[in-house]
Amino acid sequence: xxxxxxxxxxxxxxxxxxxxxxxxxxxxxxxxxxxxxxxxxxxxxxxxxxxxxxxxxxxxxxxxxxxxxxxxxxxxxxxxxxxxxxxxxxxxxxxxxxxxxxxxxxxxxxxxxxxxxxxxxxxxxxxxxxxxxxxxxxxxxxxxxxxxxxxxxxxxxxxxxxxxxxxxxxxxxxxxxxxxxxxxxxxxxxxxxxxxxxxxxxxxxxxxxxxxxxxxxxxxxxxxxxxxxxxxxxxxxxxxxxxxxxxxxxxxxxxxxxxxxxxxxxxxxxxxxxxxxxxxxxxxxxxxxxxxxxxxxxxxxxxxxxxxxxxxxxxxxxxxxxxxxxxxxxxxxxxxxxxxxxxxxxxxxxxxxxxxxxxxxxxxxxxxxxxxxxxxxxxxxxxxxxxxxxxxxxxxxxxxxxxxxxxxxxxxxxxxxxxxxxxxxxxxxxxxxxxxxxxxxxxxxxxxxxxxxxxxxxxxxxxxxxxxxxxxxxxxxxxxxxxxxxxxxxxxxxxxxxxxxxx
Amino acid sequence: xxxxxxxxxxxxxxxxxxxxxxxxxxxxxxxxxxxxxxxxxxxxxxxxxxxxxxxxxxxxxxxxxxxxxxxxxxxxxxxxxxxxxxxxxxxxxxxxxxxxxxxxxxxxxxxxxxxxxxxxxxxxxxxxxxxxxxxxxxxxxxxxxxxxxxxxxxxxxxxxxxxxxxxxxxxxxxxxxxxxxxxxxxxxxxxxxxxxxxxxxxxxxxxxxxxxxxxxxxxxxxxxxxxxxxxxxxxxxxxxxx
Lengths: 503, 242
Ligand code: HEM
Ligand code: SF4
Ligand code: SF4
Prior knowledge:
The structure holds 2 protein chains of 2 kinds. Chain A has helices at 35-38, 51-65, 67-75, 87-92, 99-114, 116-123, 137-146, 155-159, 166-179, 185-196, 205-223, 252-266, 289-306, 317-331, 347-357, 378-383, 392-404, 435-441, 443-456, 466-475, 489-496; strands spanning 238-241, 270-271, 310-313, 345-346, 371-374, 407-408, 460-463, 486-488. Chain A is mainly alpha-helical. In chain A, the strands form 2 sheets. A 4-stranded parallel beta sheet of chain A has the order 2-1-3-4. A 4-stranded parallel beta sheet of chain A has the order 6-5-7-8, sandwiched between helices. In chain A, helix 14 links the parallel strand 3 and strand 4 (345-346). The longest helix of chain A is centred in the middle third of the chain and has 19 residues, at 205-223. Chain B is 70% helix and 0% strand. Chain B has helices at 2-29, 45-58, 60-65, 67-87, 97-126, 128-133, 136-157, 163-174, 185-200, 208-211, 216-219, 232-238. Chains A and B meet through helix 2, helix 3, helix 5, helix 8 and helix 13 of A and helix 1, helix 3, helix 6, helix 7 and helix 11 of B.
């Protein structure tokens, strides 16, 4: 990747806003989905002949179904408060990566076909006066390229005076493109695997069971204890739903071993289900409610089938957004679960609770020599919560980390909490053909990390999202860091937890 | 001139009220199928209402985003608000006490409004990013408001008009009675531009004023685990569920 130009790393407190480089990312796009990826999801196999008409009709349908979309289309005043807030704009300088410009790709078509001024002026070729454009093939191509340069991280919505969330617009655009046969291969292929096999990685049940048995042996070697990783266990207290990367990718799997140790130490029975071996819900990325509901429904079925009392989610950002914010809507009411616990619960809420009650004991020397910082995952930070108080999603992971490590340092405040930057690979962009974009989009986070590494000697960055972990593992070396610098939070718990003789 | 403006103002008022009314009805009717408050968000509905209130009164998010822009925006909108309140006296008899008390400050409101608008216009032209996202209608809106402000200030500072007659004209319109309007070119220009503003309001980005109250990322409470949220069209999907 020597050919990819990395933006210079400066002081995160005085980040320069890049000069506009029009067209810089005009050719960046993911692979178009083939019929084999689209048709199982009920989308047309390839771009349909009457795509323009169908696309506009679908836009009308979405405008009638989503208040966010309808209101956001009308009320943007082009103040530009959001313009310099997107990591992809900061990393690439392409003006179409400014959130408002990205929305305008969609808004121009909305204005042409759904507003009186756009319809009237557009009919006589003067649409430009009110920012209205025909929905041409060029516009569609632009949509495909630039709506796949948005990781739906919602950073823009924090700063917009009306809370306009470009993620909502990207999702609508992707839904429209899917409905006319112009799908995104990576996302649709993965959704196909979830429906067919049960998880994003296409890991079948027997392979999973095998894999977990191997991990149990590893845990035995490490601790001398029989720490179980149960599968399809009827009557277990907890159903653990976790991103499938946790089952074998590094550093994810070290986190999974951490969850197992925590459950073991707490003496709580748990299980994974071969029916719901995936926490992530890629239907969020393509903005399709029906797909999202279908993917989520596996969790309800698995929980009912196994008769569990609680559902706990593993470390994953977009998954937690769907779980925390949407699960009750999509598959609720979850009245079959124990009402004394939040449904669903995050593994960090579970562990934090235990730490507070003294239910587990931690020894910081297990992480000797490590200086930690924490990357707030965008969808945990801005689209969900943990705990029972506002901002719990910031406090709880930090408290758990601090209980496990000798030294913790936060990155620059413009890059943490609700102002956190996306890792650069979220929203369905974690695919190799978008590597240029992913590397440049990671720049603001890398800048803040470089700063604390220099000033405070930070050695590791903890993350709580499968996408963040995979993305950082890939891009850290480009920025001169070790790929193993990114760790799971429960990997730290795993290193610190005192098992066995607890009294 | 009197008849022309009478007809124009009845039409402009109708377009404004019906147009904005229809838009508000649309925003209220379209459901939000999912909980999408930008977090951290208030946990209660009253907390969420307060959040919207802070956005409207203080431009809270804009303050986080961009301090110079926040100052320009505040100066312009507060000026505009003062000017609007001051104009109420043309429609009231007797004038409400709070309106009367604010009269002496109206003039500063006008100046603030013009200064804020000028700053916003300059920013739009010279900041490369903002110029990139600006279209003809964005400049036109600022120019229109500036022209309204200037013509209004002209009458206050340079060429006074017979405001008693103007008031008579408008209070007359309210009881469907035609009373003569002074034949003053600056007044004519001012009134014409204001009518244009009223006519374009429901079709332009000025919808941000009513729209902000309907923005789901700001007006929703963060309580999805406690309270099941279901849009009517999403509820229809449930029927097929076992
Ligand atoms: C609920 C009432 C309102 C709120 C909360 C509000 C809020 C805002 C905010 C936050 C901005 C962005 C910052 C800026 O560019 O100034 C803005 C822009 C603007 N507002 Fe308002 N506004 C309101 C009512 C109005 C009204 C009644 C008008 C005019 C009749 C108006 C005209 C404008 C214009 C023209 C802009 C764009 C300025 C530019 O081009 O930079 N606003 N408003
Ligand atoms: S949601 Fe995130 S990636 Fe998308 S435009 Fe906004 S800031 Fe950029
Ligand atoms: S901050 Fe909001 S209103 Fe301003 S340009 Fe961006 S999306 Fe539009």
